Amino acid sequence: MSLRRLYWSALAGQWRGGAVLLLCSLLEGVPAFFSGRLVELSVDRGFAVGDPAAGLGWLALFGLAAVLGAFGARMVWHQLGKVVEPLRDALVTAVVRGVLHNECPPRNQPDSSGVARITQHVEVVRDATAGLLVQARAMLVTTASALAGLLTVAGALVVPVAVPVISALIAFACLLPSLARRQRALTLADEQTAATAGASLAGMRDIVACGAEPIATLAMDDAVDAQANAAIRVARSSALRALVVSLGGFVPLLLALALAPALVGRGELTAGAALGALVYLATTMQPALRGLAATAGTVVLRLLVALRRLAETAELPDIADGTAIPFGTDVRVRELTFGWGASAEPVVRGLDLALRPGEHLAVVGPSGIGKSTLAGLLTGMLTPQAGQVLLGGVPVRDVPAALRHELVALIPQEAYVFAGTVRDNVSLFAPSASDGTLTAAVDAVGAGALLQRLGGLDAEVGHGGGGLSAGEAQLLALARVYAGSAQLVVLDEATSHLDPVSEARAERAFAARGGVLVVIAHRLSSALRADRVLVMDGRETVVGTHADLLTGSARYAELMQAWATPAAGEPAAGATTTSGVGSEPAPGTGGRPLAGSRGTIAGAPSGNGPAISAEGRGAAACGTPSGDGFATTLSPPAGTGSVTAAGAPAAGGSGTAPGPSARPDSAATGSTPRSPSVPRAARVS
Question: I want to staple 626 with a disulfide (CB 3.0 to 4.6 A). Which of 235, 279, 417, 606 is the partner?
Answer without folding.
Answer: 606
